[in-house]
Amino acid sequence: MAAGSRPQDDPNPRRLRRGAKQYLKSFLSFKPINVPLVSLLSHLPKAERFYRLPVKRAEVFCRVEGRTFVMLDPCGCCIAREMFWGQGERVKPEDRTALEVFFRLARAADVVLDIGANTGLFSLVAAAANPAAEIHAFEILPKAFLALFHNFCRNNILHRSHCHLRGIGQAESLLTMPRPRPGDPLSTTCSSLTRFASGVRVQFLSLDSLARLLPPARRVLVKIDVEGTENDIFAQGREFLARFGPDLVCEILPGISKVEEIEPVLQGLSYRLFNIQPGGLSEASRLLPHPDYHDWLFTRKSDEEFNRLSIR
What we know:
- The termini are far apart.
- Helix content is 31%, strand content 22%.
- It has helices at residues 20-28, 31-41, 78-85, 93-106, 121-129, 142-154, 207-211, 230-235, 238-244, 259-268, 303-308; strands at 7-8, 59-64, 67-72, 111-115, 134-138, 161-164, 166-168, 174-177, 195-196, 200-205, 220-224, 247-251, 272-277, 280-284, 295-299.
- It has two domains: 17-90, no CATH class; 92-308, 3-Layer(aba) Sandwich (Rossmann fold).
- The longest helix is centred in the first third of the chain and has 14 residues, at 93-106.
- It is globular, with a radius of gyration of 19 Å.
- The protein contains eleven helices and 15 strands.
- The strands form four sheets. The protein has an eight-stranded mixed sheet with strand order 6-5-4-11-12-15-13-14, covered by helices on one side. A three-stranded mixed sheet has the order 7-10-8.
- The protein is of the alpha/beta class.
- Helix 4 (93-106) packs across helix 5.
């Protein structure tokens, strides 16, 4: 990370880990070393166990439910890297299930909001699932935003997709994020709680503010991955949720996500809660963070609607 861009007052211990691992990754990314090493390891049994190893290639082909798309830079992007080692799929079975559920929900959606898009995996899955869907991807880290834009260009979906260097949470708040610089790691764990001394100022909008931009009859699907600040989205999103009743695929982190603020909003709007696990969806009466499976589906769909979408 560049000088002057050091994070301050960050309560999430998962964020921005650096040190010896980063230097090792840089060494293993050196092309004369990386190309033969990756070629050798990729032919070994259970090659997916090397999913953290950088891959010095331009792009990787990915697939969900028989549809394919491309992610760029598996050396710099950890999601593209994982897709390479997983032979086009996520490595963990619960992550594969989350993408499959999202894919099937996207087929029936008019609008998809990808909040905390990073390099755009869920947006690309939605675009592959539904050529008619309008996609809006929101990302606050400038370097990830640039990678997101390039992934949209490579997959030729910019005519129906929108990249926003914006956050969704507390309306009109501003956050300073690091300027994109060559060689800096591409983080997957920045949120509105992360503080940097200098950089690019990024504006936040409320989820409710987006309600005024969409016709009331639109079917909406939302993905939320904001590293423990989901409560800010729900606090200023009641109008949006009541108006559209969207399906939400949302990450909930044990000990970090403020479920005591999120759960009453969902209960008040009659949402059903499903933890996404390797074998499928597990319905829950309470929003209790799972120690291993962090993705949840919040929906007002009935079992009959699930069956029509081949979910569960």
